From TrEMBL:
<dbReference type="InterPro" id="IPR036182">
    <property type="entry name" value="PCuAC_sf"/>
</dbReference>
<feature type="signal peptide">
    <location>
        <begin position="1"/>
        <end position="26"/>
    </location>
</feature>
<dbReference type="InterPro" id="IPR007410">
    <property type="entry name" value="LpqE-like"/>
</dbReference>
<dbReference type="Pfam" id="PF04314">
    <property type="entry name" value="PCuAC"/>
</dbReference>
<protein>
    <submittedName>
        <fullName>Copper(I)-binding protein</fullName>
    </submittedName>
</protein>
<feature type="region of interest" description="Disordered">
    <location>
        <begin position="173"/>
        <end position="197"/>
    </location>
</feature>
<dbReference type="InterPro" id="IPR058248">
    <property type="entry name" value="Lxx211020-like"/>
</dbReference>
<keyword id="KW-0732">Signal</keyword>
Length: 197
């Protein structure tokens, strides 16, 4: 007997298998952050999910969200800016010797490890919007540009919403708005950001 009769069946199976794998391209394990307001114009390595800003009438407020580094290398955020604030600082929240929560500028910026994420949330790391030129009303869209070590940037838009938390004290709060600048550099509306180091 010839083996031939089996052969076509096998190739049919093979073809079917090929068709199957061909039909189901790459299980998309990387769901690109469920956010309708993402605009990564400059750096594809970063993605943001659920970006938001605490609505405020004046003064200062905070920006939050989860920023994911999809690349194989660490990425450092060295600065930030927004049309909604005269200056934006990278803040961390620390516990003062008194036990109170205080925010201060994050030395060296935020490092997002390769394949990792940076969680910006009330009571922790956040973007500090200072010197609001006008109110940030709920529903408003606030654009941020993050500056990255190495010269890149990452832009995204966050939605403003009411939030009653994120009322941590500022380092040096008693001394007006020195805000973590131990040198006592007065913050002026002229906008020049004193770099503390
Ligand atoms: Cu802050």
């Amino acid at each position: 007997m010839s083996k031939n009769p089996v052969y076509p069946a096998l190739s049919l199976l093979a073809a079917a298998a090929l068709a199957l794998t061909g039909c189901a391209p790459a299980a998309s394990t990387q769901t690109p952050a469920a956010s309708a307001v993402v605009d990564s114009t400059a750096t594809d390595a970063l993605a943001v999910s659920q970006p938001w800003v605490k609505a405020a009438t004046s003064g200062m407020t905070g920006g939050f969200g989860v920023i994911t580094n999809t690349s194989g290398a660490d990425i450092t955020i060295t600065g930030a800016s927004s049309p909604a604030a005269r200056t934006v600082e990278l803040h961390e929240t620390v516990t003062a010797p008194t036990g109170a929560m205080q925010m201060q500028a994050k030395e060296g910026g935020f490092v997002i490890p390769a394949g990792g994420e940076l969680r910006l949330e009330p009571g922790a790391n956040h973007l500090m919007l200072m010197g609001l030129p006008g109110p940030v009303t709920p529903g408003a869209e606030v654009t941020f540009t993050l500056e990255l070590a190495g010269g890149g940037s990452f832009e995204f838009t966050a939605l403003a919403k009411d939030f009653s938390g994120a009322n941590e004290n500022y380092v040096g709060e008693g001394a007006g708005m020195s805000h973590g600048q131990p040198s006592g550099t007065a913050e002026s509306s002229a906008g020049a950001m004193p770099t503390s180091k």
